[in-house]
Amino acid sequence: MKNKNDIRSLTLDELTSFFQKNSLPSYKAKQVYEWLWKKSCLSFDEMTNISLETRKLLKNKFVINHINIDRFQKSNDGTIKNAIALFDNLFVESVLIPTKNRTTACVSSQVGCSLDCEFCATSKMDRIRNLNPDEIYDQVATINSQSLNYYGKPLSNIVFMGMGEPLLNYNNVIEGIKKITSKTGLGMSPKRITVSTSGISKMIIKMADDNVKFNLAVSLHSAIEKTRNEIMPFTKKFPLNDLKQAIKHWYSKTKKIVTYEYIVWNNINDDDEHINALVDFCKFSPSKVNLIEYNSTENSLFNSASDNIIDRYIDALEKNKIPVTIRKSRGKDIDAACGQLANKLK
Ligand code: SAH
Fold first, then answer.
1. How many domains does the chain have?
2. What is the DSSP pairing of strand 103-106 with strand 91-98?
Protein backbone atom coordinates (compact mmCIF):
# COMPACT_ATOMS: atom_id res chain seq x y z
CA MET A 1 0.00 0.00 0.00
CA LYS A 2 2.61 2.47 1.17
CA ASN A 3 4.56 2.30 -2.10
CA LYS A 4 1.72 3.49 -4.25
CA ASN A 5 2.13 6.90 -5.85
CA ASP A 6 -0.48 9.63 -5.71
CA ILE A 7 -1.82 9.57 -9.25
CA ARG A 8 -2.43 13.31 -9.09
CA SER A 9 1.28 14.01 -8.76
CA LEU A 10 1.54 12.93 -12.43
CA THR A 11 1.27 15.42 -15.27
CA LEU A 12 -0.99 14.54 -18.20
CA ASP A 13 2.11 13.61 -20.20
CA GLU A 14 3.31 11.27 -17.47
CA LEU A 15 -0.09 9.65 -17.18
CA THR A 16 -0.27 9.25 -20.95
CA SER A 17 3.11 7.56 -21.07
CA PHE A 18 1.96 5.20 -18.27
CA PHE A 19 -1.04 4.29 -20.42
CA GLN A 20 1.13 3.78 -23.49
CA LYS A 21 3.55 1.55 -21.57
CA ASN A 22 0.59 -0.58 -20.58
CA SER A 23 -0.68 -0.75 -24.17
CA LEU A 24 -3.69 1.41 -23.42
CA PRO A 25 -4.91 4.23 -25.70
CA SER A 26 -3.74 7.78 -24.86
CA TYR A 27 -7.24 9.25 -24.98
CA LYS A 28 -8.12 7.07 -21.98
CA ALA A 29 -5.34 8.80 -20.01
CA LYS A 30 -6.99 12.08 -20.87
CA GLN A 31 -10.33 10.81 -19.60
CA VAL A 32 -8.76 9.65 -16.32
CA TYR A 33 -7.05 13.05 -16.00
CA GLU A 34 -10.41 14.73 -16.42
CA TRP A 35 -11.94 12.57 -13.71
CA LEU A 36 -9.08 13.46 -11.39
CA TRP A 37 -9.11 17.19 -11.92
CA LYS A 38 -12.16 18.63 -13.62
CA LYS A 39 -14.54 16.24 -11.86
CA SER A 40 -12.58 16.01 -8.58
CA CYS A 41 -13.23 12.28 -8.46
CA LEU A 42 -12.27 10.57 -5.20
CA SER A 43 -12.03 6.90 -6.24
CA PHE A 44 -11.18 4.90 -9.35
CA ASP A 45 -14.61 3.24 -9.16
CA GLU A 46 -16.32 6.50 -10.03
CA MET A 47 -14.58 6.52 -13.43
CA THR A 48 -17.47 4.96 -15.28
CA ASN A 49 -16.10 5.32 -18.81
CA ILE A 50 -12.88 3.50 -17.85
CA SER A 51 -12.94 -0.32 -18.13
CA LEU A 52 -12.92 -2.40 -14.96
CA GLU A 53 -9.61 -3.89 -16.01
CA THR A 54 -7.94 -0.48 -16.40
CA ARG A 55 -9.41 0.68 -13.11
CA LYS A 56 -7.88 -2.40 -11.46
CA LEU A 57 -4.49 -1.62 -12.97
CA LEU A 58 -4.71 1.97 -11.70
CA LYS A 59 -5.79 0.83 -8.23
CA ASN A 60 -2.82 -1.52 -8.03
CA LYS A 61 -0.38 1.21 -8.97
CA PHE A 62 -1.79 4.41 -7.51
CA VAL A 63 -3.81 6.06 -4.79
CA ILE A 64 -5.89 9.21 -5.12
CA ASN A 65 -4.91 11.45 -2.23
CA HIS A 66 -7.57 14.00 -1.55
CA ILE A 67 -8.60 16.41 1.11
CA ASN A 68 -11.65 15.89 3.33
CA ILE A 69 -13.78 18.41 5.10
CA ASP A 70 -13.31 17.36 8.71
CA ARG A 71 -15.35 20.12 10.31
CA PHE A 72 -17.58 22.73 8.81
CA GLN A 73 -18.94 25.86 10.49
CA LYS A 74 -21.24 28.52 9.10
CA SER A 75 -21.12 31.99 10.58
CA ASN A 76 -24.09 34.31 11.12
CA ASP A 77 -22.75 36.46 8.28
CA GLY A 78 -22.69 33.49 5.87
CA THR A 79 -18.94 32.87 6.05
CA ILE A 80 -18.14 29.15 5.96
CA LYS A 81 -15.03 27.80 7.63
CA ASN A 82 -13.73 24.36 6.76
CA ALA A 83 -11.20 22.43 8.79
CA ILE A 84 -9.59 20.40 6.04
CA ALA A 85 -8.00 17.03 6.79
CA LEU A 86 -5.06 16.15 4.53
CA PHE A 87 -4.10 12.59 3.58
CA ASP A 88 -1.52 12.44 6.38
CA ASN A 89 -3.97 13.62 9.05
CA LEU A 90 -2.65 17.15 9.22
CA PHE A 91 -5.11 20.03 9.07
CA VAL A 92 -5.45 23.38 7.36
CA GLU A 93 -8.35 25.76 7.07
CA SER A 94 -10.13 27.16 4.05
CA VAL A 95 -12.87 29.76 4.18
CA LEU A 96 -15.70 30.81 1.88
CA ILE A 97 -16.59 34.48 2.24
CA PRO A 98 -19.80 35.58 0.51
CA THR A 99 -20.49 39.28 0.03
CA LYS A 100 -23.08 41.04 -2.08
CA ASN A 101 -21.05 41.03 -5.28
CA ARG A 102 -18.47 38.34 -4.68
CA THR A 103 -17.85 34.92 -3.28
CA THR A 104 -14.25 34.58 -2.23
CA ALA A 105 -12.23 31.53 -1.24
CA CYS A 106 -9.50 32.17 1.29
CA VAL A 107 -7.08 29.25 1.01
CA SER A 108 -3.99 27.97 2.82
CA SER A 109 -0.59 27.32 1.27
CA GLN A 110 1.25 25.60 4.13
CA VAL A 111 0.46 23.61 7.26
CA GLY A 112 1.51 26.17 9.88
CA CYS A 113 3.96 28.96 9.03
CA SER A 114 7.69 29.53 9.44
CA LEU A 115 7.32 33.29 9.84
CA ASP A 116 6.83 35.06 13.15
CA CYS A 117 4.26 37.86 12.73
CA GLU A 118 3.49 38.53 16.40
CA PHE A 119 -0.16 39.36 15.79
CA CYS A 120 -1.05 36.25 13.76
CA ALA A 121 -2.38 33.00 15.22
CA THR A 122 -0.83 30.79 12.54
CA SER A 123 2.67 31.96 13.45
CA LYS A 124 2.22 30.28 16.82
CA MET A 125 2.31 26.93 15.03
CA ASP A 126 5.54 25.83 13.39
CA ARG A 127 5.63 25.23 9.68
CA ILE A 128 4.93 21.54 9.42
CA ARG A 129 4.90 21.08 5.67
CA ASN A 130 4.09 22.69 2.36
CA LEU A 131 0.79 21.91 0.71
CA ASN A 132 0.99 20.03 -2.60
CA PRO A 133 -0.47 21.55 -5.76
CA ASP A 134 -3.42 19.16 -5.63
CA GLU A 135 -4.17 20.14 -2.02
CA ILE A 136 -4.20 23.79 -3.04
CA TYR A 137 -6.43 23.00 -6.00
CA ASP A 138 -8.76 20.82 -3.91
CA GLN A 139 -9.43 23.61 -1.41
CA VAL A 140 -10.61 25.85 -4.25
CA ALA A 141 -12.65 23.08 -5.90
CA THR A 142 -14.29 22.23 -2.55
CA ILE A 143 -15.15 25.83 -1.78
CA ASN A 144 -16.40 26.35 -5.31
CA SER A 145 -18.90 23.50 -4.76
CA GLN A 146 -19.93 25.04 -1.43
CA SER A 147 -20.42 28.38 -3.12
CA LEU A 148 -22.69 26.74 -5.72
CA ASN A 149 -24.60 24.76 -3.08
CA TYR A 150 -25.13 27.53 -0.58
CA TYR A 151 -25.13 30.68 -2.64
CA GLY A 152 -26.08 29.43 -6.12
CA LYS A 153 -23.02 30.91 -7.81
CA PRO A 154 -19.45 29.82 -8.47
CA LEU A 155 -16.48 31.43 -6.75
CA SER A 156 -15.61 34.84 -8.09
CA ASN A 157 -12.28 35.36 -6.27
CA ILE A 158 -9.49 33.44 -4.61
CA VAL A 159 -7.10 34.87 -2.06
CA PHE A 160 -4.04 33.11 -0.64
CA MET A 161 -4.60 34.57 2.80
CA GLY A 162 -5.18 31.41 4.80
CA MET A 163 -2.44 29.61 6.68
CA GLY A 164 1.17 29.87 5.55
CA GLU A 165 3.39 32.03 3.39
CA PRO A 166 2.62 31.29 -0.27
CA LEU A 167 5.94 32.59 -1.57
CA LEU A 168 7.81 30.12 0.64
CA ASN A 169 5.93 27.34 -1.16
CA TYR A 170 6.29 29.00 -4.52
CA ASN A 171 6.47 26.07 -6.94
CA ASN A 172 3.46 24.27 -5.50
CA VAL A 173 1.41 27.47 -5.34
CA ILE A 174 2.24 28.18 -8.99
CA GLU A 175 1.34 24.60 -9.97
CA GLY A 176 -1.91 24.78 -7.97
CA ILE A 177 -2.84 28.08 -9.64
CA LYS A 178 -2.03 26.64 -13.08
CA LYS A 179 -4.52 23.89 -12.38
CA ILE A 180 -7.12 26.28 -10.99
CA THR A 181 -6.89 28.46 -14.09
CA SER A 182 -6.47 25.68 -16.64
CA LYS A 183 -9.28 24.45 -18.87
CA THR A 184 -8.61 20.93 -17.60
CA GLY A 185 -9.12 22.25 -14.06
CA LEU A 186 -11.54 24.95 -12.90
CA GLY A 187 -10.89 27.41 -15.72
CA MET A 188 -10.84 30.45 -13.42
CA SER A 189 -9.29 33.73 -14.48
CA PRO A 190 -5.92 34.55 -12.85
CA LYS A 191 -7.13 38.16 -12.61
CA ARG A 192 -9.45 36.92 -9.87
CA ILE A 193 -6.62 35.43 -7.83
CA THR A 194 -4.53 37.33 -5.27
CA VAL A 195 -1.41 35.96 -3.64
CA SER A 196 -0.65 37.66 -0.34
CA THR A 197 2.90 37.72 0.96
CA SER A 198 4.45 39.09 4.09
CA GLY A 199 7.11 40.52 1.77
CA ILE A 200 9.65 37.96 0.57
CA SER A 201 11.39 40.34 -1.85
CA LYS A 202 13.41 37.80 -3.84
CA MET A 203 10.31 35.80 -4.59
CA ILE A 204 8.36 38.90 -5.67
CA ILE A 205 11.12 39.48 -8.22
CA LYS A 206 10.93 35.87 -9.35
CA MET A 207 7.15 36.06 -9.71
CA ALA A 208 7.49 39.16 -11.87
CA ASP A 209 10.16 37.48 -14.00
CA ASP A 210 7.94 34.43 -14.37
CA ASN A 211 5.32 36.75 -15.80
CA VAL A 212 2.51 35.53 -13.57
CA LYS A 213 -0.98 36.82 -14.30
CA PHE A 214 -2.45 36.95 -10.81
CA ASN A 215 -2.44 39.85 -8.35
CA LEU A 216 -0.03 40.63 -5.57
CA ALA A 217 -0.83 41.82 -2.06
CA VAL A 218 1.90 42.64 0.45
CA SER A 219 1.29 42.62 4.20
CA LEU A 220 2.99 45.86 5.11
CA HIS A 221 1.42 46.89 8.45
CA SER A 222 4.09 49.53 8.93
CA ALA A 223 6.24 51.53 6.54
CA ILE A 224 8.67 52.29 9.36
CA GLU A 225 11.44 49.69 9.54
CA LYS A 226 11.75 49.70 13.32
CA THR A 227 8.06 49.05 13.91
CA ARG A 228 7.87 46.46 11.17
CA ASN A 229 10.86 44.62 12.66
CA GLU A 230 9.13 44.57 16.03
CA ILE A 231 5.78 43.23 14.89
CA MET A 232 7.20 40.95 12.17
CA PRO A 233 10.69 40.07 13.50
CA PHE A 234 11.69 38.02 10.43
CA THR A 235 11.61 41.25 8.39
CA LYS A 236 15.02 42.16 9.85
CA LYS A 237 16.27 39.92 7.04
CA PHE A 238 13.90 41.52 4.53
CA PRO A 239 14.48 45.30 4.69
CA LEU A 240 11.86 47.71 3.37
CA ASN A 241 14.28 49.00 0.79
CA ASP A 242 14.60 45.55 -0.79
CA LEU A 243 10.82 45.27 -0.72
CA LYS A 244 10.54 48.60 -2.54
CA GLN A 245 12.96 47.48 -5.24
CA ALA A 246 11.07 44.19 -5.64
CA ILE A 247 7.72 45.95 -5.96
CA LYS A 248 9.15 48.42 -8.48
CA HIS A 249 10.35 45.45 -10.50
CA TRP A 250 6.95 43.75 -10.13
CA TYR A 251 5.17 46.80 -11.53
CA SER A 252 7.62 47.36 -14.35
CA LYS A 253 7.20 43.77 -15.51
CA THR A 254 3.50 43.12 -14.85
CA LYS A 255 1.92 46.60 -14.84
CA LYS A 256 -0.18 45.35 -11.96
CA ILE A 257 -0.86 47.60 -8.99
CA VAL A 258 0.26 46.14 -5.68
CA THR A 259 -2.12 46.13 -2.72
CA TYR A 260 -0.70 46.86 0.72
CA GLU A 261 -2.48 45.12 3.55
CA TYR A 262 -2.38 47.21 6.65
CA ILE A 263 -3.78 46.80 10.16
CA VAL A 264 -3.90 49.77 12.54
CA TRP A 265 -3.21 48.97 16.20
CA ASN A 266 -3.22 51.13 19.31
CA ASN A 267 0.21 52.31 20.37
CA ILE A 268 1.89 50.56 17.47
CA ASN A 269 1.14 52.44 14.27
CA ASP A 270 -1.61 54.87 15.31
CA ASP A 271 0.31 58.16 15.00
CA ASP A 272 1.06 60.73 12.29
CA GLU A 273 4.58 59.44 11.82
CA HIS A 274 3.21 56.06 10.71
CA ILE A 275 0.45 57.61 8.62
CA ASN A 276 2.95 59.81 6.77
CA ALA A 277 5.35 56.93 6.30
CA LEU A 278 2.60 54.84 4.71
CA VAL A 279 1.53 57.65 2.38
CA ASP A 280 5.15 58.09 1.38
CA PHE A 281 5.70 54.40 0.85
CA CYS A 282 2.69 54.18 -1.46
CA LYS A 283 4.18 56.68 -3.87
CA PHE A 284 7.26 54.98 -5.34
CA SER A 285 5.14 52.56 -7.36
CA PRO A 286 1.38 52.54 -8.15
CA SER A 287 -0.43 50.97 -5.23
CA LYS A 288 -3.59 50.77 -3.20
CA VAL A 289 -4.16 50.12 0.48
CA ASN A 290 -6.45 47.62 2.10
CA LEU A 291 -7.02 48.55 5.74
CA ILE A 292 -7.81 45.28 7.51
CA GLU A 293 -9.85 45.13 10.65
CA TYR A 294 -7.83 43.33 13.32
CA ASN A 295 -9.21 40.10 14.72
CA SER A 296 -7.97 39.68 18.22
CA THR A 297 -5.93 36.58 18.96
CA GLU A 298 -4.51 35.47 22.28
CA ASN A 299 -1.80 38.14 22.07
CA SER A 300 -3.19 41.03 24.09
CA LEU A 301 -0.44 43.45 22.99
CA PHE A 302 -2.34 44.00 19.77
CA ASN A 303 -5.57 45.96 19.93
CA SER A 304 -7.44 47.46 17.05
CA ALA A 305 -7.16 51.23 16.82
CA SER A 306 -10.32 53.31 17.05
CA ASP A 307 -12.36 54.37 14.00
CA ASN A 308 -11.10 57.88 14.50
CA ILE A 309 -7.49 56.86 13.83
CA ILE A 310 -8.54 54.74 10.89
CA ASP A 311 -10.36 57.75 9.45
CA ARG A 312 -7.14 59.74 9.71
CA TYR A 313 -5.36 57.09 7.68
CA ILE A 314 -8.15 57.17 5.08
CA ASP A 315 -8.10 60.98 4.85
CA ALA A 316 -4.34 61.10 4.39
CA LEU A 317 -4.37 58.40 1.72
CA GLU A 318 -7.28 59.93 -0.15
CA LYS A 319 -5.72 63.39 -0.06
CA ASN A 320 -2.73 61.84 -1.79
CA LYS A 321 -4.94 60.05 -4.32
CA ILE A 322 -4.00 56.61 -3.07
CA PRO A 323 -7.00 54.26 -3.36
CA VAL A 324 -7.98 52.78 -0.01
CA THR A 325 -10.52 50.12 0.96
CA ILE A 326 -11.48 48.78 4.32
CA ARG A 327 -11.83 45.07 4.87
CA LYS A 328 -14.30 44.33 7.60
CA SER A 329 -13.78 41.19 9.57
CA ARG A 330 -15.95 38.23 8.54
CA GLY A 331 -16.80 35.02 10.33
CA LYS A 332 -15.71 36.34 13.72
CA ASP A 333 -18.17 34.15 15.63
CA ILE A 334 -16.53 31.01 14.22
CA ASP A 335 -12.87 32.14 14.36
CA ALA A 336 -12.77 32.13 10.58
CA ALA A 337 -11.40 35.64 10.54
CA CYS A 338 -8.06 36.45 9.02
CA GLY A 339 -5.12 35.40 11.17
CA GLN A 340 -7.27 33.32 13.49
CA LEU A 341 -7.36 30.19 11.46
CA ALA A 342 -5.05 28.14 13.59
CA ASN A 343 -6.87 28.85 16.82
CA LYS A 344 -8.82 25.67 17.29
CA LEU A 345 -7.33 23.24 14.86
CA LYS A 346 -5.86 20.79 17.32
N1 SAH B 1 1.66 34.94 4.90
C2 SAH B 1 0.87 35.70 4.00
C3 SAH B 1 -0.56 35.21 3.84
C4 SAH B 1 -1.30 34.75 5.06
S5 SAH B 1 -1.82 35.99 6.21
C6 SAH B 1 0.89 37.18 4.39
O7 SAH B 1 1.46 37.49 5.44
O8 SAH B 1 0.39 38.01 3.65
C9 SAH B 1 -3.04 36.95 5.36
C10 SAH B 1 -3.24 38.34 5.92
O11 SAH B 1 -3.84 38.29 7.22
C12 SAH B 1 -1.95 39.11 6.10
O13 SAH B 1 -2.11 40.44 5.65
C14 SAH B 1 -1.77 39.10 7.60
O15 SAH B 1 -0.93 40.12 8.04
C16 SAH B 1 -3.20 39.21 8.08
N17 SAH B 1 -3.44 38.83 9.46
C18 SAH B 1 -2.73 37.99 10.24
N19 SAH B 1 -3.29 37.93 11.47
C20 SAH B 1 -4.38 38.72 11.46
C21 SAH B 1 -5.37 39.05 12.44
N22 SAH B 1 -5.36 38.51 13.64
N23 SAH B 1 -6.35 39.89 12.08
C24 SAH B 1 -6.40 40.43 10.83
N25 SAH B 1 -5.50 40.14 9.87
C26 SAH B 1 -4.49 39.30 10.18
1. 2
2. antiparallel
